[in-house]
Amino acid sequence: MDLKNRVAIITGAASGIGKDIAVRLAARGGIPVIADLNLAAAEATAAELRTSGADAFAIAMDVANEEQVEKGVADTVARYGKVDILVSNAGIQIVHPFVDYPYADWKKLIAIHLDGAFLTTKACLKHMYAAKYGRVIYMGSVHSHEASKLKAAYVTAKHGLLGLSRVLAKEGAEYNVTANVVCPGFVRTPLVDKQIPEQAKQLGISEQDVVKTVMLKDTVDGEFTTTADVADAVLYFAASPSNALTGQSLVVSHGWYMQ
Ligand code: NAD
Which Gene3D superfamilies does the record match to this protein (predicted)? Predict the structure, then answer.
């Protein structure tokens, strides 16, 4: 289960879950490429990792912009000669009741989650196929399997990633390219911190009750999932030596959703 010198493009790695995946990959000798919309934060993350002795590289990338995705992947391959792992992690959340969900918000969320997963995968695949090696991990969610109120676009996008990964599992197999989806429960990151007051307002309950009675209600221990819980699952798939697990999703949610 060796990740040494494996080059991994991790989207959305300037913050939250993606950042911890980068940190943990670097600690195992891998080379994280921090691809994020927020270049200043991506550069700060890469600089932090280099200080601890790792190799790391920051690139500006809007995952929903084909040109930027192609350029970011080309720059990575120009620098390291390969891309072994893609973690398609960048994401946002926008909550509204279905009946009021603005079409523009729907399109924005779907573009980042689904167009982003498609474009980054497509750009990496030609290099992975040529090398006959690749590990692609999509950041799903419990919402890849379960629905919640107010999350029409997010639930749709996260379910969609399961289909995308299954197609890639089939097409990529002859090139030793695997595909998986990691599906976290609620993780205390800026993405979730933003939702707590929004959901409190929309559901007419206190912020404390959003955490207790909405977010963590069905966990076995009333605990948030941690970035470490998620990163360990991602790196397990990233280091997987064969096609044995390809096409599978893994829920990491403290028992909220059991497959
Ligand atoms: P976060 O807000 O902490 O980090 C998201 C990162 O993505 C940020 O650095 C942001 O700049 C970047 N980003 C946003 N739009 C982008 C774009 N168009 N192109 C490139 N980068 C972009 O969020 P997080 O909680 O770490 O979420 C990461 C992923 O995990 C998302 O896909 C999210 O849906 C998923 N997820 C999160 C939770 C949770 O509870 N936090 C649970 C399940 C799944």
Answer: NAD(P)-binding Rossmann-like Domain
Same domain, yes or no: 169 and 145: yes
What per-residue confidence (pLDDT) applies to 204? 94
At 232 the three-state DSSP class reads helix
Task: Write down the pTM of the prediction.
Answer: 0.97
Cα dihedral sign for 29, 130, 35, 42?
A: positive
Are 93 and 214 found together in one domain? no
Check whether residue 107 and residue 194 sit in a common domain: no
Ligand 1 mean position, distance from CA 174 (Å)? 31
Give ligand 1 pocket residues (Cβ under 6 A): 11-12, 14-18, 36-38, 61-64, 89-92, 112, 139, 141, 184, 186-187, 189-192
Residue nearest ligand 1's atom 23 by CA: 191
- Structural domain that includes position 216: 186-224
Percent of the chain's residues with pLDDT above 70: 100
What is the domain-level CATH number for residue 141?
Answer: 3.40.50.720
* φ and ψ at residue 241, rounded to 5 degrees: -80, -10
Kindly give, in sequence order, each residue whose CB lies less than 8 Å from that of residue 193, ignoring residues fewer than 6 positions away: none
Both tokens of residue 149?
A: 């109120």
Compute the distance between CA of residue 121 and CA of residue 169 in angstroms, rounded to an integer. 12
Distance separating alpha carbons of residues 86 and 258, to the nearest angstrom:
26
| 215 and 243 assigned to the same domain | no
Tokens (6 digits) for 206: 């206190």
**What residues of the chain score a pLDDT lower than 50?**
none
